[in-house]
Amino acid sequence: MKNLYPPMLAALLLPQLPAMAGHLRNAHSSFITTRTPDPTEFVSGVIKTASGEALPGATVFIKGSFIGTSTNHLGQFRLGVPFENGPVTLVVSYVGYDSQEVELKAADNTLSIALTPSATLLNETVVSASRIEENILRAPVTIDKLSTQQIEKVSNPEILGGLGQLKGIDVSSASMLFTSVSTRGFNTAKSERVVQLVDYMDTQLPSLNLSPGNLVGIPELDMESIEIIHGPASALYGSNALSGVILFNSKDPFVYEGLSVRLRGGQRSLLDGQLRYAKKLTDKLAIKINASSFQANDWIANNFEATQSSANPAGSLLGYNAVNRYGEYGYTFMPSQQLPGGTNAELYGKTAYMPGFTEQDLIANDNRTSSYRLQGAVAYLLREDLKLTVEAKYAEGTATYQNISRFRVKGLGTTQYRAELKSSKGFLRLYSTEDFTGKSYELNQLGSLLQDSPTADGGTVSYAQQFYATYNAAYSQARRAGAPVETALAAAQQVAGATQLKTSDSRFTTLREQIIGNKTPGVGAQQYFNSFLNDISGQRNFQLTNTGTSLVVGAAYREYRLGSNGMLFKDTEDKRIRNYEYGAYGQLTQTLLEERLKLAFAGRVDDFKNFKPAFSPRASAVLSLGENKQHNFRASFGRAFRSPSQTEQYFYNDIRTGVLIGNIGTGFQGYNLALFNSPQLLAAAQSNPAVLQPYEYNIKPLKLERVGTVEVGYKGAILPKVYLDASYFRSCYNDFIGARTFVGNTDGSRPTPQQLAAGYSTAYTNQSQPTRVLYAYYNNDQEVRTQGVTAGLTYYFKRALNLTGNYSLNVLDKSNLPEGFQTFYNTPKHKYNVGATGTIGNFSYNVNYRWVQGHLQEMPFATGSIKDYSTTDAYLGYSLPKLSSTVQAGISNAFNTNNVQVFGGPQIGRLAYLGLRVDLK
To answer: pTM for this one?
Structure first.
């Protein structure tokens, strides 16, 4: 296992220890002096429906404290309650039912509490929308929540894949366990505009600023709920909450005690095991342990369409560049670059392709995807409403990730440490995250380096050189023999193809392992980074008046320590790159008209090492009508931003054929790549530099991406058992970050004609040459406007049957966009879900049908259109209460439709499983 790194967290904690120790000592002393150490008395009973059905998973809390528990399979609970200060009030809650308060003056072991369905259908509370607890119906923005029971019924192998059943959410799976989620457009395979949090800790990889799905997150057994904010959220969450927030809330060991085990097995050699154990060791001390292991045969991408950059269409006799073939070299025949074996003037200007390797070829027997997670936490109640939590996590996984290429992330993972002091009035939180790469490798580099390898140890002729020399000679020989062009081309491909490195050759296995094991850019395909993210944040809530005025204030500081030994960033082994950002926020809320009108204004200021400060405001209003406030109308305006990722800022990766480079200096001046491929123009520029002007590029230094969004919506019960959540939004985006390939000097200056000529002759062989092919990031000046509608309808017929349906419309406004402008919108115009869920006696079930319209996807790896696709997912559980067990069966994509969610990604097929869950309380 990776070495853990507690000194980093210690470095964060040390400056705070004197103040924290004094605060905790005073708090603890106060607790000791105001309480008599009388033995805790226990209360117990059963929570059920009005018709007498048990409610497993209902929560029971002492009002105003962190002391609580949850019910078992039979709806039973047992809770230690201190009565030395007089009567206590128990708060009993269950999703979809009215919470009930029960006052107790003494211990009672015969409690029987019946909950009734909520008059407004949903009594759920959320904390993410306003960073304080509030009813979901009155949240100021569009927000969804999955409860523990709903999470258990998700049949997708990756929990984020199940979020596609919700309205307005786009899911993109680059492989079985690497899933990206986005809202309101601009979908990618790496979720860089949606912040993913576990208990408010960022799950991103510090080196890349992306969240690898739930690959290194928490197991489903420990998920109490998932909350999803749609749209801009920087006013409370800062950088990168451009399109939303996903918050995973884990289970409190004080509330959810016991041992839970879940085992699943199924198609594609699926083996999935999860274990959770939580125990209150005393009334004040509790522990929690989580462990999980997942393995299956991964999905493999096999799209053999021609890429947009291919000089020839698919099926061409000259060959072509396919999306999921790697190392697909193209050679353009020119008089100045004549190969031995013949004179082929009729081929001048044409490109012949050397067939590359498929994804299956390169991954070989390494197609197992996996996820291993281990977590331990200790929680201590300093007072009934003041809790200290310390935890450590280790997670690693193997999957395929897609960005500028496809990467086999093998043993990619994180270690994370957290210390948190939390009360009903606020928190102080510190955490540290370290990422590591294991033995991950890039498929494009692997394929190309295999083609560039010598045909024999110590040799000087590569497989690519041998292929084209043989190709040229075979073509010439066929033409001299009188064969037509088509026949000669076919003969050349056949003869040259016989000289290629074959996957069946023992040398292929040897070279593959050597290249995968080599970290040197341009020589090996192995990826390497090892960076740290240190974060400290605090928040305090104030009730300013008794007339509904409240204030939330908070601040955060974040530091990155980037390390790659010069293989991803321009760092060194003993000197990491330091980057930082910090900010402060506040939110003022006022309720009026007998709490039927809630007004709120939030604002946050963030500053950065490399960028100007940013201000993110949000103003909102929620009007609640009806006898039970069951009709809730909301309106909001907000601005958000995304800071460039660490790679966009500090990238420096020289892969010999070019340099991938960040852009936080003075920008870049260079030339169109097409110019670099024209020796005639380069020769003319020696005497007249003015001929280069039409090909000039000027790229300014990076700045923040920004969006402004107006939203209106309704959430409530339109009929006694019918719940509607609908919204309309309109957004304007500015300064979107993209990337461009051009010719320039690595220091950002514009090459002279002489430098261009020198660079042309050594571009792919001399890494010391300042003039290179560069791939750099830039902000697009074009404003992009979008709008959309979401609507979700739920009919709560009875506990045995709830019918759901939702529809999402996303529209890209092209009226102001120039022809051919790339927006990277990547979002279907129409999509919808229909489903049913319920509980009948010991049976529980969930079935959902999802349809997504085909659309254009402009990805860094490849651009193309994906077709309409649909998926049918189902779950069935049978509870055995006396055995504290549930037999489970699930299936995703039941009809095995060709479900391609990412252009260049795999077809996601059927996956069925059987399982058993045991819960011992």
So the answer is: 0.90
